[in-house]
Design goal:
Structural class: alpha+beta
Oligomer: single chain
Strand order of the largest sheet: 2-1-5-3-4
CATH class: Alpha Beta
Order of helices and strands: EEHEEE
Amino acid sequence: MRVRVSMFGPLRKYGAEVTCELEDGATVRDLRSALAEELSDEPLLARCVFATAEAIVKESSVVSSGVSYVVLPPVCGG
C-alpha cells in the first residue's frame, strides 16, 4: 500500500510530503524504517513521533490504507 507522510520542522527539508510503499499489515515501526530509507537514515527521525489527524500513534499500531500520517519532530520552547 502507498502511505503519505507529511513532514514538519527540520524534516521539511525533504519536502512537505513523502510517499512510502508498505506491505498490508505493516506497523508504524515498519513505516519509520521505510521512511528512514527514503531520508537516507536521517538521525532526527529516531526521536520523532508519528500521528494521524486524530492522535499520536504507537510503533506497534497497524498502518491503515488511505490514512495520512505526519512526523512530529521534538520541539523545545521557552
